[in-house]
Flavin-dependent monooxygenase (Streptomyces triculaminicus), 371 residues
Amino acid sequence: MTIAIVGAGLGGLALARVLHVNGIDAVVYEREPSRGARGQGGMLDLHSGTGQRALREAGLIDQFHAIARREGQDLRLLEPDGTLLLQEDTPDDAPLERPEVDRADLRNLLLDSLPEHAVRWGHAFEHADHGLLHFADGSSATYDLLVGADGANSRVRALLTDARPAHTGQNVVELCIPDIDRTHPDLATMIGRGNYWVLGDGQSLSAQRNGDGRVRIYLSFHHTAEDWFATSRIPFDDPAAARARLIDLFTGWDPRFTALIAACDDTVLQRPITTLPVGLTWPSRPDVTLLGDAAHLMPPVGQGANMALLDGALLGLALAAHPDDFPAAVKEYEREMFERTSTAGRQSAHVQEILMSPDAGQRMLAFFQPG
Ligand SMILES: Cc1cc2nc3c(=O)[nH]c(=O)nc-3n(C[C@H](O)[C@H](O)[C@H](O)COP(=O)(O)OP(=O)(O)OC[C@H]3O[C@@H](n4cnc5c(N)ncnc54)[C@H](O)[C@@H]3O)c2cc1C
């Protein structure tokens, strides 16, 4: 039986790894030409009960602990006028409840744990029919079970459901301060070792320290339309002018926050935030299933990667438990996955609603310090 996994993201690789440790071969088809072809983005916090559980099933938890950043759990929460609402500094002996990890390091850990040639780079999936996968370069490959792990804009998803991601009314611009300790030590001290959130009415700024010394800055614009990047008058093709326009858009905020924007390099990325309907399901098919963002794209508030990893691990375990009955394994996996991820989707939508509300700072404070 041939298992084909489309997408070498965290979910697809977790599945391939758990299958491998259980003695089952799978082939991962990835559209990128190589592992380093595209930047993998910033930090992820992996939760002990979900993302870390997946890595335990994958036999990689010790290696994960070696690359995890405990101090990345630090949090500072502020308001646009500079008021500090909350500061949480992680003690050195704190349990690794949700340590941060660089996404590229985590992906490399998974990639290095697979046999050579398990991932076929440069294979962009186009469509599947009669047990054949077809790729953009005209090649094809057979499969008995096809797993769509191809992310938010999954092409495999169309085999199971007509659902498509919808825009949430949030648009994010991602910026970056490289080597902040050396280039801007004052701003480095201000941000600290982990997450720095400034939540305003209709806009927010979050800064996150990465393991390689850079700080990624995410500027969120709430209640904005799908075409907002085109209408925002941010000249994305001219980074210096884009930074100046973004500073304008944060007029009235404490100058320390706009100083963060001014300190950025020429990285200016557009990230429209889209989601699938919470609680999406589909009638089970014996030969196709989905995991990760392809199955349950959520707002980026800390659950997506954790769910993708656990989907991959649990699907791998279900297939290992039913080696002669993949359709039964798929059904078992989907039953648990639908329930677990719809709960996570509802929680994520709730946090997203708080972040987009006019009194986001105070509500987030109450969220972290209930009662
Ligand atoms: C700004 C931002 C911050 C986030 N922060 C967090 C966080 O802190 N914690 C958290 O848990 N989650 C976070 N998330 C969500 C998280 O990134 C995703 O939920 C997670 O990466 C999903 O993993 P995946 O394996 O399903 O998909 P992906 O990681 O997107 O991987 C999909 C893979 O499929 C490949 N692919 C796509 N199409 C094809 C094709 N046609 N053929 C072949 N290959 C294809 C892609 O190249 C990619 O390698 C964040 C998301 C964003 C946008």
